[in-house]
Amino acid sequence: MNILYITVRADHGGGPGHVDILINNINMDGQKHDIYVAGPQDKPYYSKWAVNTNVKGYFILPHRKFNFLVLLKLIFFCKKNKIALIHSNGKGAGVYSRLIKLFIFKIKIVHTFNGVHVDKYGWFMKRIYFFYERIFDLLTNFYICVSKGEQDICIKNKLFHESKSTVVYNSIKTPVVSAEKPIELERCEDKFILVTLSRFDFQKNMDYLFEIASTTIHDDSILYVLVGDGPDKERLEKLKLPNVIFTGFKNNPQDYLACSSLYISTARWEGLPFALVESCSLGIPIICTNVVGNNEVVNEGQNGYFFNSSNEAVALIRKIKNDTILLNTLKTNSLGVYNQKFRIENMILKYNEVYHNLISKNFS
Fold first, then answer.
1. pLDDT for the residue 123
2. Model-level pTM?
């Protein structure tokens, strides 16, 4: 089967990371898929996908922009390479995939939202977006939702019928961790370290994290390590909190996770956050906001906790920091959550089942 994965992002983030995992693992259970990718020339994934021997062909898309001429060329690319199934990831990719079906109706379209991100839309824009998705539902064969919460939101807003969808959690292989500590953490053995892997933007709500960090500023034993980049980073760096370390983007974020005591997320919304899944795979407990996606990785009181205010977050940090038995129990349970729900082998089996059923015409 010839499969085309479409993404309008190839930069850092969960969506491109998920496409990368599929490219490298979709044939792991013995399936015979020829993989093609349509995506932009962003760092870091374009340079990886362009030379990946699993990728038979790469079509260049503009970064998060729609271009009708590009669409026409992509349609020709699909015909030339006899694409049988397109799997689009994210809103922008979904525009391309569904419009292609207007021209090549026999192609099967699978779409993944990777989070129905409408929180920053006003009432009118939400109505427009939901109307557009309901129209495009006519051109979509099946949906893969990355969390039950995401599926529930879509069904509630009548974006598709439940029978046209399934939930498959984003999954990962256990990260390989370096034997050496990151240079920023070499002298932090006595610190209780909280790590976040994040884009510094509205969704990730890093101002909230700084509010939490400022409340513990006088406790020299607590350190916050922020791995990532984004539009809010420069402004936040100017605050110069002594208990916060900015690392910038790193190719080895798992090494920072492995050195942490807790993972913290202040996100306003999520799809299914890879960073939380990675934390579980390394046995790292989590404290986070109680939003869609987060609440399907964290089991309250088992492998982490939710907070609704900076004071609650600080109380949780101090509670876990001062109770070694509790910390070790949370670590054990976090690894258990990963083994139960997020092993990559289970995800690949479910994806291949969807693909096979679509091509076999079990789904209309």
1. 82
2. 0.83
